[in-house]
Specification:
The chain is of the alpha+beta class. It has two domains: 118 residues, Aminotransferase class 4, branched-chain amino acid transferase, N-terminal domain (D-amino Acid Aminotransferase, Chain A, domain 1, 2-Layer Sandwich), CATH 3.30.470.10; 159 residues, D-amino Acid Aminotransferase, Chain A, domain 2, CATH 3.20.10. It is built from eight helices and 15 strands. The strands form two sheets. Strands 7, 8, 9, 10, 11, 12, 13, 14 and 15 form a nine-stranded mixed β-sheet that branches. A six-stranded antiparallel β-sheet has the order 2-1-6-5-3-4. The protein is globular. It binds N-(5'-phosphopyridoxyl)-D-alanine (PDD). The site of N-(5'-phosphopyridoxyl)-D-alanine (PDD) has 15 residues, from helix 6 and strand 13.
Length: 286
């Protein structure tokens, strides 16, 4: 399998990363997951913009321009012949040796950039049947807007859900729902979509921004306002959203059914509007 390593397309076995890389030692880096449909990147510009915004927030100098990154990712898709799948990319601050928490002087380090692909079909069954979730206190830090490779808080929550045989964990702070361990969360009440506003408590998801754009175009009101755990459980419909899940109906929360345990009409509409967006950018998929 081909991967990108420091702006070169190489075989995965040829990648060598120093054990003192700050990504390995401190999780000092950023990542993105971008979906590919029909061999074409979907919403790549938005993902790359979020990466550049995150890099600015942590004073990380990215080793490429936006244009160069798109070119490299396209070469990677081509190299691995990916039709429907995911690109995972990460950039770390590189080596600082001996180990030292402080950021090294920028002249002394060079960032390490890697990217790989996986073929993953759209999970149509799950998008139809929905997922079951638990709720948990949001124990993460206060920079959740940065797509950091430091994901312990997220993976611990995901693990709790999996231990209970569920798919995802919805997180809350002070009784207000923030997001899920690996996705954003929104509710629908009386045909209005509610979701936590962007800010430092959630990741500004690209999928939700696309979904809200098409929802508003279709005349659905979207309110970027917080909601409580009680409102979550009393919602007509609930959906998680992410690059890999698209608009995913939540049909059970903490053992209680949502919307009778079926994907509701608004989420179904959002799913089909999302497909139209994909097809506009990447060509017909269905
Ligand atoms: N996760 N919130 C969190 C905590 C996430 O990890 C993700 C995505 C999202 C949704 O963001 P987007 O719509 O831009 O994918 C929200 C990715 C897919 C992952 O970590 O694999």
């Amino acid at each position: 399998m081909k991967v990108i390593w420091n702006n070169q397309l190489v075989e995965r076995e040829d990648v060598k990363i120093d054990m003192e890389d700050r990504g390995y030692q401190f999780a000092d880096g950023l990542y993105e997951v971008i979906r590919v449909y029909n061999g074409v990147l979907f919403t790549a510009k938005q993902h790359i913009e979020r990466l550049f915004t995150g890099a600015k927030k942590i004073d990380l100098i990215l080793p490429f321009t936006r244009e160069k990154l798109i070119k490299l990712l396209s070469e990677l898709i081509e190299g691995n012949q990916i039709e429907t799948g995911n690109i995972y990319l990460q950039v770390t601050r590189g080596v600082s040796s001996p180990r030292n928490h402080a950021y090294p002087e920028t002249e002394c380090t060079s960032t390490v950039f890697t990217a790989s692909t996986t073929s993953v079909p759209r999970n149509l069954k799950m998008m139809n049947d929905g997922i079951k979730v638990i709720t948990l206190p949001d124990m993460r830090w206060l920079h959740c807007d940065i797509k950091s490779i430091s994901l312990l808080g997220n993976i611990m929550a995901k693990h709790e859900a999996h231990k209970k045989g569920k798919d995802e964990a919805i997180l809350y702070r002070d009784n207000r729902v923030t997001e899920c361990s690996t996705s954003n969360i929104s509710i629908i009440k009386d045909n209005i979509i509610y979701t936590h506003p962007d800010g430092n408590l959630i990741l500004p998801g690209i999928t939700k921004s696309v979904l809200f754009k098409v929802a508003r175009q279709a005349g659905i009101t979207v309110k970027e306002e917080t909601f409580t755990l009680k409102e979550l459980k009393e919602a007509d419909e609930v959906f998680a959203s992410s690059t890999t899940m698209e608009a995913m109906p939540v049909i059970e929360i903490d053992g209680e059914l949502v919307g009778g345990g079926n994907c509701g009409p608004v989420v179904k509409l959002l799913q089909s509007l999302y497909v139209t967006e994909i097809e506009t950018e990447c060509g017909i998929i269905s």
